[in-house]
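Hi support team,

I submitted a single chain yesterday and got back a structure, but I'm not sure I'm reading the token output correctly. Could someone confirm the output below corresponds to the sequence I sent? I've pasted both exactly as they appear in my results page.

Thanks,
R.
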Amino acid sequence: MVPMRRPSLLPRLARSGPRAAPPPLVTTALLVALTACSSTASREAGGESSEGAVDTGAAEVSGVQIATVTGDSIDVRVEQGGDEVLETLANPNEFGADRTFLVERDEGLWLEVLLPVRPNGTTGWVRSDEVTLTSTDYRVEVDVSEFAFTVLEGEEEVRSGVIGTGESETPTPEGRYYFTELLQPPDPEGPYGVYAFGLSGFSESLETFAGGPGQLAVHGTNDESALGQRVSHGCVRVSNEDITWMAENLPIGTPVEISA
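Hi R., thanks for writing in. Yes, this is the structure output for that exact sequence:
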């Protein structure tokens, strides 16, 4: 990996209107925190790249709630109103993006949130006065057996396409996740394509990879002929056209359902 710089935030886009504004850009230094989404052959052919992170930007619409941390860190509790701390998570996250959670349950003073930690699917409780709440009608459904993704806005299908998935020894794990940050590789012709969304989940086959924790991602590709196949170490590949559309329309916090 090429050494990268600590993030520097650019001005945020306005969070207004019925649709989610695309997240503004941030530069970052931590591509290795994602699972090696390219196969060995792709890495040798396309090389490795550093990336730029993109900060959160969720719109006020009806739908699932997205909680964005307001302080420098947040304590996640094991139980609603309890004292036992499950995790203390820094804000911003390791990519320089606002720490964001997908809200699974709103109890007023307390929110049960999906966490970007192992094991996949872990939830915990945070105080509602330590976050700001936005929402989105968007969700992404990924069917690994059909090599297909669908983006829905409410019940309306707004986009679909072909995907590449994890190889047999490093399969893409099923589960409910959400976008945690948006990264922009400096080389749009590299193996990660023009954009990469980090996911809240992790590989269940690789505990670590290239110094990172094996985080999953949805990203573009420089080899669209490989879509429709098992080609990655667990990440979901889409065309550069599809990932560009996602980057322009889907906020950080958008839920992603992966099924077999």
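A quick pointer for reading it: Helices lie at 40-46, 240-249. Let us know if anything else looks off.

Best,
Support desk
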